[in-house]
Amino acid sequence: MKKHHAYLVLLAGIVAVGSTSGFAALTSPASVSAAAPTSAGSSLNSLPAIGLQSGISVRLSDIQLSARNAGSILTYTLTYTNRTSSPYKLLNTFSKVQTQQNGAIKGIAVPEDKDHITISPATSQSITYYINAQDQSRLNGTKISIYGWDFNSSNYEKKLGTFTLPSGYSASVPIHQPRKIMIGHTPLKLKPEQLQIVSFNGKQYARITLQMTNLGTESLESPGYNAYLLSSNGSSYALGLDRSSQELDIQPGATTRISYIAAIPAHLSTSNLSLQITHTTGSASSSSDANSSTASTNLELPIISFRLPAVSSSSLTVPVSKSRQLWIDGNAVTSMLKNATQSTSGDKAVWTMQFSLKNTGSKAMTIPAYEASITSAEGYTFPIQTKAFSNLTLKPLEEKLIQLSAEVPLQLKQQQLKLQLLEPTTTTAANGTANNAETATATANHSSPILPTAFYMIPYSQEQSQSAQTEYTFTNNDGSFGVTLESLQRMPWTTDDIVAAKITLRNAGSSSVTLPELGGWMKAQNNRISSPVQIVTEQNDHSLNAGASRVYYIVGRFNSDVDLTQLKIELYPTANSIGTSSATPDDTSKASTSNNMLDSDNPFLSLNVGQTNVAVAKIARGSSFHIQTNGKKAEIKERRTITYEGSSQTIAYTELDMKSEEKRTSLPSRLVAYYKTPDNEYYEATVNQSDKTVGPDGKSLITVWSKLPSSVHTSDLTLYIGEGISNGNMSTPATAPTGYINAVELALNKQSTPVTTSVSSEMELFPYRFAITGATGSLAEGQESIAINMTYNLSKDNTYTMGTFGHNLIIQWVDPSGQMQEKTMVPGTELTLGKSVPYATTLSSSAYKNVKGGHFTINVYDEFEGERILLGTQSYRVDFTPNIVNTPTTSPTTTPSDQPTTNPDTGTSKGKTDTGKTDNAGNGSKTGSTDSHDSESAAK
Q: Which of the ends of the chain has fewer CB neighbours closer than 10 A, N or C?
């Protein structure tokens, strides 16, 4: 059912107090009669009743005057008493009113009472009449005469008696006296409580607070009525409802308060002011009374008036740390400016305030869309942009904290600022919903002025900076919390810097709370704002028990030139988490939250960070560091750092040994790294690691590398390394990081270029070890190829998990003439694991026809990203087999060349072979052919 405006509810069907029941009974909710004032009524009660006939009498029970520029209307109520056993017809009598400015005028029954023409036996009935009193402004000297019909008199009228108002009579209910009335079938008690005078924008306003109590058993609605402020000199000022009082539903037993406002002259005396209530009704004229009064199409009839108390000394200004009770649609709301902090940005003072509204009523209510601003002692007003009051509904006993922010020039007096709440500017009929022509006409001229609800003194205090390892307590709409800044780090990130704040949030309340999903930003000096922050927590559970804590990482990005000496962290609930924060978040929903998705009028945390050290922890050369993230605990230590020197670039390369410290199988943290030079230059590094889980004490090999200009000095490189995050979650090895946390600066122990050794010794290409255990070269006279046969050992340390092995093993053969051929060999594929694994290849060149032995050299290189390091080199003899010309003899003889020869490098024996024929094992493959592993001849 649609509500009507408050003062319409107040005035609907106000009627006179009956002589038998204490309340006047109404024939309909719209029927209206005024009751005699409780105190002033004694003056009317002192007037004797007038007898109409035996057993029939009438008393004057109320009289009211409504004085307007368009003309005055006087109403009076006559209470008829029939003590007989027969009905009495009111057609037998009539009344006339005589005022100081008018002659005798016949009264007309108000429309609601015009059909009451009979007084039943043994009952009393109150009938209200009115006259058009023209310019009458006072009731002094007014007389009401009662007439009966006398057909023996010349004018057929006989005066039965006259009610003469006592001297000094007032029609208003005395100060602080309640009045009981009936609205329909509902009894209602009214009492004006307070009169205030408000100065605003160079004008003066009167604000009247009226208390209403529903004494009935049903809720109440009403048609439209008007209210006026009456001065002691007879001036009248239209009252409009305060915007916060325009919607009212009076429940049984409820006491509500509404406020009226009227603009008044500054010189008006505020003594002896009255509140008058009128009702606009249709014409009651008829042919029988056309000569006694000229009735308008619409009549504004006075119903009741109250003497108002003296002007209250209370001010709209609310002192610091004090609350102010507001009445909104008759419901009590406690308001308070809880705290305010001020920081500077250039020539502006940036004020951030926390404003509280608590519904202390018994039903849910909607808060008006107040307009907030800051006013200065110099007379300036600075608006506050906020949607916090829009569509804000409070349940009974629910409290909401609202954050308000504004900038004020520093040249103004910051110690004398006030927060002003202004009633909303939306246009609403002040005296009810204009649902008919009469109501629309009555309310058209009663629009309410827009006045401040209150001025809250703003406490002056500089914003306090949060020191590391110190808890700061705060309260928001989700509960009471303590927050500790554990650390603040500034690290490189591509072309920008990452700022990572680690905080511990503690539930300081007495009950469990549900934490919303959060988003926000960081603000640096001069209001430079970071990209939307990523917020990482190690747990996805949104509940937090009383006294329990949770660690959050807030990660933002700034340009590398931003000064962070004044850093502010602001966190807000995300728009999709309001009212649903108990749901378990989907990982994909934790991505960086766009600022327009945040409930910026409902802050969760504002943290001002002072001169906190933003440097990362330094790890000494050769020392290890530990990852403490839950589920990913591990120890990391540098294994080795080397450089691959190229003609135009240098590759810095670091191997890290990661050992799990978890008690169960776990997936290690995805690492992010940057190389830092002594000149504070940062180079993004590639991190290669396994995407497989490891068991307790399991080890992982992580390789880190970056291409540096050849001009960079690499002797004192350090490595920034941290745990990667991806859109608000801890990164997995398979996801691309969007930032990192928990960084350290690891001092590196750069090794010199490995000492070149013989290839027969074990060469390390961790986790592989490689050695050539033997090699021979065979050349037959006149042939164009040298057959190379060798054996090797290849082993792997399988205690480590690792990512893609990015190294190649280059084996290079240099023939006796200096020509080179090489083969790229990948450990584990082209080179198989094992001991004494045979391998054969062939070197081909036409120059070999003239070669008669000599040596060939094997070089072994570690190749990484196109750059090489020589691991080992060794020379081996080429066995030369000349052609033998056979001469006839009587008996064969043995020559030295027919004896088996021993390779001095390998110690192996070789017998006579078919020239140029050998296989990969030296057993007879065709001379000059190459096996499937051969590469093309190439010179380095």
A: N
- How far is residue 131 from each of residues 135, 157, 869, measured CA to CA in Å? 12, 19, 118
- Looking at the DSSP bridge assignments, the partners of residue 435 are none
Q: How many CB atoms within 10 Å of residue 918? A: 24
Give yes or no for residue 892 having a pLDDT over 60. Answer: no
Angstrom distance (rounded) from CA 853 to CA 537: 72
- How far apart CA 715 and CA 713 sit, in angstroms, is 6
Q: Rounded distance, CA 370 to CA 235, Å?
A: 32
Amino acid at 363: K
CA distance 465 to 446: 51
Q: Which of 361, 363, 367, 343 is nearest to 353 (CA)?
A: 343
d(CA 253, CA 392): 26
Residue identified by tokens 């909401």 is 400
| Percent residues over pLDDT 70 in the chain | 80
Instruction: Evaluate the CA torsion angle 836, 838, 839, 845 in order and state its sign.
Output: positive
Q: What separation in angstroms does the CA of 316 have from each of 196, 199, 245, 653, 929?
A: 9, 10, 17, 71, 106
Closest CA to 80 of 27, 24, 40, 140: 24
Q: Look at the block and give the residue holding tokens 């900038």.
A: 407
Distance CA 841, CA 821 (A): 10
CB-hemisphere CA count at 13 Å for 836? 2
Q: Which residue has the tokens 């020539």?
A: 347
Identity (one letter) of the amino acid at 683? Y
DSSP H/E element including 901: strand 901-902
Name the 3-class secondary structure at 44. Answer: helix
Q: Which residues pair with 200 in a beta bridge?
A: 203
Residue 119 dihedral angles phi and psi, to the nearest 5° = -105, 115
Give the three-state DSSP class for 96: strand
Q: Name the β-bridge partners of 505.
A: 483, 550
DSSP letter, residue 289? G
Going from the C-alpha of 450 to that of each of 26, 325, 370, 422, the distances in angstroms are 36, 19, 11, 7
Other C-beta atoms within 10 Å of 132: how many? 18
Burial class of residue 655 (count of CB atoms within 10 Å of its CB; 0-12, 13-18, 19+): middle
Question: For 49-77, what is the mean pLDDT?
Answer: 90
Tracing tokens 């410290």 back to the chain, one arrives at 661
Query: What is the spatial distance between Cα 523 and Cα 565, in angstroms, rounded to a whole number?
Result: 11
Q: Which residues pair with 692 in a beta bridge?
A: none
Residue with tokens 């108000």: 110
For 905-938, the pLDDT digits (tens) are 433 333 333 333 333 333 333 333 333 333 333 3
Q: How far apart are CA 207 and CA 868, in angstroms?
A: 90
Q: Which of helix, strand or coil describes residue 209? A: strand
Q: What is the DSSP string of 639-655?
A: EEEEEEE-SSEEEEEEE
Distances (CA, A) of 857 to 162, 811, 876: 145, 10, 6
- Cβ neighbors of 607 (< 8 A, separation 6 or more) are 466, 472, 483, 485, 501, 503, 568, 569, 570
475 in Cβ contact with 400 (< 8 Å): no
CA dist., res. 208 & res. 451, Å (int): 13
Q: Quick one: pLDDT band at residue 12, thresholds 50, 70, 90?
A: very low
- pLDDT tens-digit profile of 579-633? 444 333 333 334 444 555 888 778 899 888 876 778 899 999 999 999 999 889 9
Q: Are 213 and 181 in contact (CB under 8 A)?
A: no
- For the chain, the average pLDDT equals 81
CA distance 855 to 778: 10
The residue whose two tokens read 């009669």 is: 33
| CA proximity to 759, closest of 873, 636, 680, 854 | 873
pLDDT of residue 324 exceeding 70, the answer is yes
Q: How many residues does the chain have?
A: 940
Q: What is the pLDDT of residues 610-619, one digit of tens each?
A: 767 788 999 9
Model pLDDT for residues 792-827, shown as the tens digit of each residue: 999 999 999 999 999 999 999 999 888 899 999 999
